[in-house]
Specification:
Number of helices: 20
CATH architecture of the largest domain: Roll
Helix content: 25-40%
Number of strands: 19
Largest sheet: 11 strands, mixed
CATH superfamily of the largest domain: Dipeptide-binding Protein, Domain 3
CATH class of the largest domain: Alpha Beta
């Protein structure tokens, strides 16, 4: 229902900051966004950095996917199929340790300079040297500062050679290189802006140097991102400018869409999506994503470290009720760390709300009267609404969460520092292979505060040598059927014993005005494609 509060929120979102020159036009007309410009309403307060060597959030990954190319990628219509992006071909040595990539000619950065093997080598080496959050995707092949000059090298302007520490399945290496962290930046532009040993990271946080269909013009945190078409891209974008406005309130997104202030709304609630589905003024685009919503329980909290407490929390949650009543169009119940669609994903649901059983488990753990703990979560819809439902579920068994709503990037930063008790979080797969999520949720080779690989298991302080070893064995297994069996077994143990309550898998839905076409939502965040978006 449109209320005065929603109207004010929408007007504020539509008018925005004065730094965009066409704002006055929008405010005056209220009927149509300017030609040649797509205005998208989206929750973007999860963004921490636009540097692909550092960005590890949903929106940052999506933007990197539209600003950069990788050596290889996977098409949304067949996400398990690997295709060349910058690479036209690749080969592996007999010992499965040396991989040679031949680059396509004529691929150009937004500066107009052609992409060379030197740019590829620089990009991958800076990931290794910076060692930011997503670096483990590349580092797991044995690359480090000491060996990267020999292990990642160019043999001529169009040839890149990678040498892994151990024999590696070609498909696994390629899937990892297809992740956003594998984005290729222009060496000359980035290195010229380096400060000390930061490899240009300070500048790259808010700028771009890519060969994708768009380039970053500006980003103002929790306000807006402006993209301009890369005129030198091999496949030019259909629209010259895309503006992504941060609009936290789905009601404000809907009202702006109805008024013509926005061309696309990305975060409408289930009832709003249902309401516009039969309206010929709008089109609905949907995609089941490799994206999960889960509760992380920090094992540094001695109460949450008790197995009975972890199990009680999993048994307290009303999974079906939350999905049915809050997010029927946006999420599906899913209770394993591999999202449906990835090889080996379990789709069974071993947990359902059982208040009596959960109370018995708390009593066994020595907490018959429950306990208090903090609960961090993103304040925006629908996550904020889900958090409130979880609070009620936990209260029914005696657990009293101190609710700590915040912007998504603040919640992410806190959990990366291992400072949470409970946290409601989203996680998207980085590449289309089971190891992407298996490593994140099941491996923690070093639980020290200065660990090199700070996986999700590490963030929650879960020290699991046996499961770490099993996950490493699975990624090295060359028999496909046996490998899938190993991941299924790991998931079953993880469901019962981990400090993660896996709850829901995202079904992303975007609503566009009927004149807008070409938006392609990705199975992975960085596969959401803006290049074909047009209106008219």
């Amino acid at each position: 229902m449109t209320t005065r509060r929603n109207l004010v929120a929408a007007l504020g979102a539509a008018s925005g900051a004065a730094f965009l020159p066409w704002d006055a036009v929008i405010r005056a007309a209220h009927a149509q966004t300017p030609p040649g410009i797509i205005v998208m309403a989206k929750q973007i307060d999860d963004m921490i950095s636009l540097d692909p060597a550092e960005s590890f959030e949903y929106t940052g990954g999506e933007l990197c996917g539209n600003v950069y190319q990788k050596l290889v990628t996977t098409p949304n219509e067949a996400p398990s199929r690997l295709t060349g992006d910058l690479a036209e071909s690749w080969t592996a040595s007999e010992d499965a340790k040396t991989f040679t990539f031949r680059l396509k000619p004529g691929q150009k950065f937004s500066s107009g300079k052609e992409v060379t093997a030197e740019d590829v080598v620089y990009s991958l080496q800076r990931v290794v040297a910076l060692n930011k959050s997503p670096a483990f995707i590349i580092n797991q092949f044995g690359f480090n500062k000491d060996n990267m000059a020999q292990a990642i090298r160019a043999t001529d302007p169009r040839t890149v050679v990678l040498t892994t520490a151990e024999p590696t399945a070609t498909s696994f290496l390629l899937y990892c290189l297809s992740a956003a962290v594998g984005s290729i930046v222009e060496k000359a532009v980035v290195s010229a802006r380096a400060q000390g040993d930061d490899w240009g990271n300070g500048w790259m946080k808010q700028n771009s140097a890519g060969s994708g269909p768009y380039r970053i013009v500006s980003w103002r945190a929790s306000e807006a991102v402006t993209l301009e078409a890369n005129q030198h891209a091999a496949s030019p974008a259909a629209t010259r400018r895309i503006i992504i406005r941060h609009v936290a309130d789905p009601s404000a997104q809907l009202l702006g869409l109805q008024r013509g202030d926005y061309d696309i709304a990305r975060n409408l609630a289930s009832d709003q999506i249902k309401g516009v589905s039969g309206d010929n003024r709008f089109s609905v685009v949907s995609q089941r994503k490799a994206s999960l919503l889960y509760i992380a329980m920090n094992q540094k909290n001695p109460i949450l470290a008790k197995p009975q407490v972890r199990q009680a929390i999993k048994m307290a949650i009303d999974y079906e009720g939350i999905q049915r009543n809050i997010v029927p169009s946006n999420y599906a119940v899913h209770q394993s760390f591999l999202p449906e669609g990835l090889p080996g994903a379990l789709t069974d649901k071993p947990f359902k709300m059982d208040v009596a059983a959960a109370k018995r488990l708390l009593a066994e753990a020595g907490h018959p009267d429950g306990f208090e703990c903090s609960f961090d979560f993103f304040s925006g819809a629908p996550v904020g609404d889900i958090a409130q439902a979880v609070q009620a579920n936990l209260a029914a068994i005696g657990i009293r969460p101190r609710m700590l709503p915040g912007e998504m990037r603040a919640v992410i930063t806190k959990t990366r520092a291992r400072q949470h008790d409970l946290a409601l979080l989203r996680w998207g797969s980085d590449y289309f292979d089971p190891h992407s999520n298996a490593e994140a949720f099941s491996m923690n080779p070093d639980n020290g505060d200065d660990a090199r690989n700070k996986t999700l298991a590490w963030r929650s302080g879960w020290d699991i040598p046996e499961l770490t070893a099993r996950t490493l064995a699975a990624v090295k297994e060359t028999d496909t059927e046996k490998r899938i069996d190993m991941y299924e077994a790991i998931q079953r143990d993880h469901q019962q014993n981990s400090p993660f309550a896996m709850m829901l898998q995202e079904v992303e839905v975007a609503v566009t005005r009927n004149a807008v076409r070409g938006l392609q939502l990705g199975v992975l965040s960085d596969r959401t494609n803006y290049a074909a978006i047009a209106k008219g």
